[in-house]
Amino acid sequence: MNVEILISELNFKGIRSSGPGGQHVNKTASKVVLSFNLENSQALSEGEKARLRNKLATKISSDGTLTLECGETRSQHRNKSIVIERLLALLQQNLKVAKKRKKTKPSKGAIERRLKSKKQHALKKSNRRPPKID
Prior knowledge:
- The protein has five helices and three strands; from the N terminus they run αβαβαβαα.
- It is of the alpha+beta class.
- It has a three-stranded antiparallel sheet, covered by helices on one side.
- The radius of gyration is 27 Å and the shape is elongated.
- Residues 97-134 are annotated as: Disordered.
């Protein structure tokens, strides 16, 4: 993933935000909507695109566009930097290859300790019961 090329491929749009700012939010476009076309990107390899298509299937539209938005602050520039950071974190997180899990068995000592503690717990519970009178 080439970050410089990726950032140059991003499309930004400023819209009116509903966040903090009083009357200021009624007349300024401080919310930023980021659009990233995953299919036409030159920053990602075909393998990376396929991995992202699988992992981010619910976030990608039918035309292959990933859309994120941020309206947290009153500053459009700050919102723009926040949404870029979010996109990069999202892509890096979903491009990681998970390690293969190795199956392991508990050791004999661990099994014995577990059974011993279960036995002690059962004994403690049985001692709390009222005695049976025949």
